[in-house]
Design goal:
Elements lengths: L2 E2 L5 E5 L6 H11 L7 E5 L8 H14 L4 E4 L3 H9 L15 E3 L2
Parallel strand pairs: 2-3, 3-4
Antiparallel strand pairs: 1-2, 4-5
Helix pairs in contact: 1-2
Length: 105
């Protein structure tokens, strides 16, 4: 998976389908190349359908593999709520004009 740097100290990782165990392993290898102080944005826009369990596992694995800032985009409200219930996203609701969601650090 390519890493795109839109702004300094920020890395956008566009997750490519299929989002399964192999795809998650590829994403984690890509993530290992990102410096710890760089904000990581996981972009789920291309992945359909999004399986609840896989999304939770991917975000949890990323959260446990690094301590730097992490944001998700491209998740449905359902998936954002699920990740909040699991403690992987902050409790506040997303804004109406953005689908970006910061993950607890």
């Amino acid at each position: 998976m390519p890493i795109e740097a839109e702004v300094p100290h920020q890395a956008l990782i566009q997750i490519a389908p299929p989002l399964d165990e192999g795809g998650a392993a590829t994403m984690l290898r890509t993530l290992a190349r990102v410096p710890e102080d760089t904000e990581v944005i996981l972009d789920f826009h291309r992945v359909e359908p999004l399986d609840d369990v896989v999304v939770a596992r991917v975000v949890r694995a990323v959260r446990h593999s690094r301590s730097g800032p992490l944001t998700t985009t491209g998740l449905t409200l359902h998936h954002q709520r699920l990740l909040r219930l699991l403690g992987l996203l902050p409790a506040e609701e997303p804004s109406d004009d953005s689908d970006l969601a910061a993950v607890n650090g």
